[in-house]
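wait is this the right file?? whatever heres the structure
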């Protein structure tokens, strides 16, 4: 899969393509339908498949503090796109110049002159350009004049509910991990590189790996049963903590994972942490002694939960 950052780099590598555009935060079941249609369209017309995304995401650019929490960082998106055999991912820096483009300017400058799009696939709720003025209907109206075809993908509905990134964020915030994973079509995963922590877990008798979140604020918090992936061929069961460690008056949100029956060092490794069930919320523990007893309970509950789903 080819990754291109920036409009200038894109123009130097123009190739006729079938393209889709969006945030693709989470790459959930609805996004996956769009990607599948994109691949089919590209293959049918002998084009390369291209996905156009933006960093930062538009809402983050306009008001970072009010923007919704990220489900997936750029690197995590790229990993998911690769699973769908997308030929090319183009990332443009979202700034005021891009935000000010009219729908026509966006089509001319970005989609046609930049991407060289011959076929465009979008979701039924797609909006683009200045003040979100552009949509599927607009693309359809100008497609003949501009010599491209446009296709729309219907929303994906599960149990009468439209799957969206917002729906998944709300499920995660409520601790409904199984429901969120169902809408995602896979376990909710946070990826990152293992870094040095303060070794508090090891001193308590429960060594942990620490991962930099690289997020303004996470979509989830609390203690979870999950898996660590990227260490050998098998998933490793783990108790996962996401929070600011209030028992130690922490300020920064971190991710720590205690891998069950594992004692190797993983510093510098890039790993994935999958969440499968929420055990409890953070914040009610007031002493290290109480914390140690609670961690023991969390480990037992995680072992029991992972054993049960392994037997299903």
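ok assuming it is, sequence goes like this
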């Amino acid at each position: 899969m080819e990754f291109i950052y920036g409009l200038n780099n894109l123009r130097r590598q123009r190739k006729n393509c079938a393209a889709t555009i969006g945030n693709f935060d989470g790459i959930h079941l609805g996004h996956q339908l769009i990607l599948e249609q994109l691949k089919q369209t590209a293959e049918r017309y002998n084009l390369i498949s291209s996905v156009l995304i933006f960093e930062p995401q538009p809402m983050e650019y306009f008001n970072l503090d009010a923007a919704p929490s990220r489900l997936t960082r750029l690197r995590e998106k790229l990993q998911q796109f690769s699973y769908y055999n997308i030929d090319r991912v183009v990332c443009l820096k979202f700034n005021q110049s891009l935000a000010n483009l009219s729908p026509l300017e966006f089509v001319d400058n970005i989609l046609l002159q930049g991407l060289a799009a011959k076929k465009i696939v979008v979701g039924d709720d797609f909006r683009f350009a200045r003040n979100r003025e552009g949509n599927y209907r607009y693309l359809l109206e100008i497609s003949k004049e501009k010599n491209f075809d446009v296709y729309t993908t219907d929303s994906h509905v599960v149990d009468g509910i439209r799957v969206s990134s917002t729906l998944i964020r709300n499920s995660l915030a409520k601790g409904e991990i199984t429901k969120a994973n169902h809408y995602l079509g896979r376990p909710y995963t946070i990826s990152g590189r293992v870094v040095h922590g303060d070794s508090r877990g090891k001193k308590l008798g429960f060594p942990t790996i620490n991962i930099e979140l690289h997020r303004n604020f996470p979509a989830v918090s609390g203690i979870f049963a999950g898996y660590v992936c990227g260490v050998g061929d098998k998933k490793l069961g783990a108790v996962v903590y996401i929070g600011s460690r209030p028992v130690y008056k922490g300020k920064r949100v971190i991710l720590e994972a205690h891998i069950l029956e594992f004692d190797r060092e993983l510093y510098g490794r890039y790993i994935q942490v999958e969440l499968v069930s929420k055990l409890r919320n953070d914040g009610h523990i007031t002493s290290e002694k109480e914390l140690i007893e609670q961690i023991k309970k969390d480990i037992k509950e995680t072992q029991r939960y992972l054993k049960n789903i392994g037997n299903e």
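The domain at 2-158 is CATH 3.40.50.620 (Rossmann fold). so i think its the right one actually
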